[in-house]
Amino acid sequence: MDVNRLPKIGLPLILGIVILLIFLFKSTITIGSGEAGVLYKTFGGGVVTDEPPMGEGFHFVLPWNKVFIYEVRQQELSEKMLVLSSNGLEIGVDATAWHQPAYNKLGSLHREKGENYIDRVIRPAIRSAVRSVVGRYTPEQLYSSKRDAIQNEIQEETKKILDQQYVQLNEILVKDITLPKTIKTAIETKLRQEQESLEYEFRLEKAEKEAERQRIEAEGKANANRILNASLTDQIIREKGIQATLELSKSQNAKVIVIGSGKDGMPLILGNQ
């Protein structure tokens, strides 16, 4: 064997192994937990949209193709903005959106919106919905009873926009609504006065009910006395008096001295034995 030929054979072999290693390195990709990949075929039509995205784990990819990795878990986006109420006052709104890409539409999202879809799509959609909804209400409604209704309306309008943009909206939370200080003070004063008025009306109503109860009770007693008086004839009274006198005469501590008072006078028992 000619030893002088070994370097000539070994060099191409080493070069081939290096090229193979580079090929293998460029042809593999690992997609992490909570992520998915969009395949871009350089010589095969660009972004793949008619197949599901590449899932978690290890994948072989031709070295001339590319994979764009997206987080597909739920994400949080907070927005603080100033918008106008129905009467033109500036209102501060602090809202949070929970969102994630529509998994099976990830290829279309990448092709049409790009990796910066949060700033291109989600943020403008939230701002548009908040402006639209808050503009329907007065500061008084925003401050008090309409908070839940406003949150639901913002979520519905934002979802309507994002459903067409390959984004899944899970929830909108309105964390705070800030009014101008003078308006807030005026609303609080008005609410306090309304509460005091309601308390005063309650006390009046309670007093009226108590007076009505006492009137009914007095009328009942008066009616009972009239019925009793109408039933007490002179003869009944005389019989009751005689019966009471007889019972009293049986007492161990009493001796009877009977006297009469007038024609129909009742007997009286006086003195001791």
UniProtKB/TrEMBL annotation:
Coiled-coil residues are 190-224
Please give the GO cellular component terms listed in this UniProt entry. membrane
SMART domains referenced in this protein's UniProt entry, alphabetically: PHB
UniProt-recorded Gene Ontology molecular function terms: peptidase activity
Question: Which GO terms fall under biological process for this protein?
Answer: proteolysis
The transmembrane segments are: 6-25
Compartment(s) where it occurs, according to its Swiss-Prot or TrEMBL record: Membrane
Band domain location, by residue? Answer: 26-191
Question: Does the UniProt entry include the keyword Oxidoreductase?
Answer: no
Which Pfam family is an annotated match for this chain, by its short name?
Band_7
Protein name as catalogued:
Regulator of protease activity HflC, stomatin/prohibitin superfamily
